[in-house]
C-alpha cells in the first residue's frame, strides 16, 4: 500500500531512532526526545499530538511507583526483607537453598522497585555471603586440621547470575515491575482498546514470574554446583546483619504503610470484581476515580506526610527528584512513535508487508505468539528492554491485525519477552552489574543465558497461547 509523506518521514525517523538505541550513540532518553522533536519539525504531526503521550496516566504510574521505590531504598526496607528471608531456618547453610532464597528475594523486590536497584543491593548481599564462606573456609583450613573440601568457584558464578536473572524475571510480576510492562500495556490500551488492570496483570504475571524463577534456580543449580553440602559462615553473617538492623525505624513503618495503601488500591478493584461482579457500582467507581496511576500518586503523596524520623518526612523532595526521569522520557518518546505509526498508517503497512515473510498457513494465533516472543527476546539481547518493547510491541500488534489474528496474546508475549535477554552483559543493567563483580566469566553468562532465553521464550509463548489466546 502507498505510504503518505508523513508515514515515509516517520519511517525514516524510526529507523534512525532504532539505530541510535541499538548503538547507544546517545543516551536512550535523549534519542527518544530527539525523535519526537524530529516528528514535529518534519511535519509528521502537530506538536500537541506528538507530545500527548508524555501526559498519559501511565506516566504518573511510573512517577508514583518510582517515588515509593525510592523510599523503600532510602529506609532500607528491601535489605530488611532480604535478610529476613535468608534467616528462614529452611534456608540454613545449604548452597542450593541459599541460591534459591537469593533468587526469590531478588524476584520479589524487583516486582515493585527497579530491577537495576534490586540487583545492586542483592549483589552486595551475595558478595557478603561469599566472603563469609571464604573466610570460614580459610579459618577451618589450619595445618593441624583435616583437609576441608573447598567451595567450587562455579557456585559464586551461579549465585551472581541468580541475582541478575531473577531481578529481570521478577519485573514480570506486576505492571510497575519493569518499564516494558507499562509500555506494552499502553500500546494495548491505545491501539486495541483493552484496559488490563493491575490485578489482571498480576493474575498472569505472578505465576509466570514464579515459574521462570524456579526454572532459573534449577538451571543455575545444575550448571554451577557448590561441590559441598554446607556453606559455613552464612548463618553467622545473616544473624549479624539482622542484629545491626535493629528494630523497625519510623521511616520504615511509614514507608511500609504507604506501600501497603498503594498496593491495596491497585488490587482492590480486581478483588471486588471477583466478589461483587464486574458490573457492580463500587467496581466501576474505583476504576473511574482511582485508576492505577492515581493510586500510585496517593501512596507517593502520603510519603511526604508521614514521619520518616527526627526532623524529616518518609520521603524528602530532594530524594524524590532523584528518581529515574530518563525512563519516563524514554517511555513518552517511544509511545509517541508507536502512536504515530498507527495514525499515519505506517504500522498497518509494515504489518501487511511482514505477512509476506510468514510461511503459508502460519498466520494463526499460536504462530504469531511464538514469532512475537522470539523477536522480542532476540531484540532485547542487543538493546535495552525498554527500547525493545517500544520497537516490537506496535509491530506485533500491526502484524496481528494485518493477518486477522488476535493481537492481545501476541502483544502480551512481546511485552513479557522484552524483559528477557540474559546472554550478554550489555543486554540488561542487571547483567552488567553482576558481570562487573569479576566473578562471572563471559562464557558462563552466555551459555546459561541462552538456555534461559530459550526456556523463558517457551514458557511465555505457551502461557500466552493457553491462558490468553
Percentage beta strand: under 5%
Q: Could you give the order of the helices and strands?
A: HHHHHHHHHHHHHHEEHHHHHHHH
Q: What is the count of β-strands?
A: 2
Distance between the termini: 29 Å
Query: Percentage of helical residues?
Result: over 70%
Structural class: mainly alpha
The backbone outline, from C-alpha atoms, is globular
Regions with pLDDT < 50 over 5+ consecutive residues? none
| Overall radius of gyration | 23 Å
**How many DSSP helices?**
22
Strand order of the biggest β-sheet: 1-2
Mean of residue pLDDT values = 86
- Report on the biggest sheet: 2 strands, antiparallel
Summary of the model, kept short:
The protein is mostly helical.
Structure commentary:
There is one protein chain. The protein is mainly α. The chain has helices spanning 5-23, 28-41, 47-50, 57-74, 77-86, 95-110, 115-140, 153-170, 179-192, 198-223, 234-245, 250-276, 281-289, 292-303, 317-320, 325-343, 346-355, 365-382, 385-403, 407-417, 429-435, 442-468; strands at residues 307-309, 312-313. A two-stranded antiparallel sheet has the order 1-2. A hairpin with a 2-residue loop joins strand 1 and strand 2 (312-313). Helix 9 (179-192) packs antiparallel against helix 20 (407-417). It is globular and about 75 Å long. The model has no long low-confidence stretch (mean pLDDT 86).
Topology:
Layout: H1 5-23, H2 28-41, H3 47-50, H4 57-74, H5 77-86, H6 95-110, H7 115-140, H8 153-170, H9 179-192, H10 198-223, H11 234-245, H12 250-276, H13 281-289, H14 292-303, E1 307-309, E2 312-313, H15 317-320, H16 325-343, H17 346-355, H18 365-382, H19 385-403, H20 407-417, H21 429-435, H22 442-468
Amino acid at each position: 500500500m502507498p505510504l503518505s509523506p508523513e508515514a515515509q518521514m516517520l519511517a525514516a525517523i524510526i529507523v534512525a531512532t532504532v539505530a541510535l538505541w541499538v548503538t547507544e550513540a546517545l543516551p536512550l532518553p535523549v534519542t527518544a526526545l530527539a525523535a519526537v522533536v524530529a516528528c514535529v519539525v518534519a511535519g509528521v504531526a502537530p506538536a500537541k499530538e506528538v507530545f500527548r503521550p508524555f501526559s498519559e496516566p501511565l506516566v504518573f504510574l511510573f512517577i508514583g511507583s518510582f517515588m515509593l521505590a525510592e523510599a523503600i531504598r532510602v529506609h532500607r526496607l528491601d535489605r530488611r526483607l532480604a535478610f529476613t528471608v535468608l534467616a528462614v531456618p529452611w534456608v540454613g547453610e545449604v548452597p542450593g537453598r541459599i541460591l534459591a532464597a537469593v533468587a526469590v528475594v531478588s524476584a520479589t523486590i524487583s516486582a515493585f522497585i527497579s530491577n537495576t536497584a534490586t540487583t545492586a543491593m542483592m549483589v552486595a548481599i551475595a558478595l557478603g555471603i561469599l566472603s563469609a564462606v571464604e573466610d570460614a573456609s580459610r579459618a577451618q583450613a589450619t595445618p593441624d586440621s583435616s583437609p576441608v573440601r573447598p567451595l567450587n568457584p562455579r557456585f559464586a558464578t551461579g549465585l551472581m547470575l541468580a541475582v541478575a536473572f531473577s531481578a529481570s524475571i521478577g519485573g514480570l510480576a506486576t505492571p510497575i515491575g519493569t518499564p516494558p510492562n507499562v509500555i506494552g500495556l499502553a500500546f494495548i490500551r491505545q491501539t486495541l482498546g483493552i484496559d488490563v488492570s493491575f490485578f489482571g496483570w498480576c493474575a498472569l504475571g505472578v505465576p509466570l514470574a514464579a515459574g521462570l524463577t524456579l526454572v532459573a534456580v534449577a538451571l543455575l543449580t545444575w550448571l554451577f554446583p557448590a561441590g559441598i553440602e554446607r556453606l559455613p559462615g552464612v548463618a553467622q553473617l545473616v544473624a549479624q546483619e539482622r542484629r545491626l538492623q535493629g528494630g523497625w525505624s519510623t521511616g520504615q513503618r511509614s514507608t511500609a504503610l504507604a506501600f501497603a495503601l498503594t498496593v491495596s488500591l491497585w488490587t482492590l478493584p480486581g478483588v471486588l470484581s471477583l466478589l461483587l461482579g464486574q458490573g457492580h457500582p463500587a467496581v466501576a467507581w474505583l476504576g473511574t476515580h482511582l485508576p492505577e496511576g492515581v493510586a500510585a500518586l496517593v501512596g507517593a503523596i502520603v510519603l511526604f506526610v508521614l514521619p520518616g524520623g527526627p526532623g524529616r518526612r518518609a520521603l524528602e523532595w530532594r530524594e524524590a527528584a532523584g528518581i529515574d526521569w530518563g525512563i519516563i522520557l524514554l517511555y513518552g518518546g517511544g509511545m509517541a512513535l508507536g502512536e504515530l505509526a498507527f495514525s499515519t498508517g505506517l504500522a498497518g503497512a509494515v504489518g501487511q508487508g511482514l505477512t509476506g515473510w510468514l510461511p503459508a498457513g502460519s498466520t494463526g494465533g499460536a504462530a504469531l505468539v511464538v514469532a512475537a516472543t522470539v523477536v522480542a527476546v532476540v531484540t532485547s539481547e542487543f538493546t535495552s528492554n525498554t527500547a525493545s518493547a517500544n520497537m516490537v510491541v506496535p509491530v506485533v500488534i500491526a502484524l496481528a491485525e494485518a493477518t486477522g489474528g488476535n493481537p492481545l496474546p501476541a502483544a502480551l508475549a512481546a511485552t513479557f519477552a522484552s524483559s528477557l535477554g540474559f546472554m550478554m552483559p550489555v543486554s540488561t543493567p542487571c547483567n552488567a552489574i553482576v558481570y562487573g563483580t569479576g566473578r562471572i566469566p563471559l562464557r558462563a553468562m552466555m551459555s546459561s543465558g541462552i538456555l534461559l532465553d530459550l526456556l523463558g521464550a517457551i514458557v511465555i509463548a505457551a502461557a500466552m497461547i493457553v491462558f490468553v489466546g
